[in-house]
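[Automated response] Your request has been received and processed.

Submitted sequence:
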Amino acid sequence: MPHELDDIDIGIVTSLQADGRKSFRQIARELDISTPTVQARYQRLVNIGLIKSISPVIDSTNLTKERKDQVQT
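Generated structure:
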């Protein structure tokens, strides 16, 4: 079932897409809302299945040849 997202939900998702390491506090400041609101909205987005995980993006150009072979990108 599709879910309606409002501007706050979209702001949270967009912020996390730009940098998944951002704290709820940083996102709250960006969106000019409270930190508990970000936490609750994030949890709801996880519960409805919109956010499946926050994953690192690996830049293998920063690795030596030996390590590149050990890291799957």
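Summary generated for your ticket: Helices lie at 7-18, 24-31, 35-47, 65-70. The chain has a mean pLDDT of 89.
If you did not submit this request, please reply to this message.
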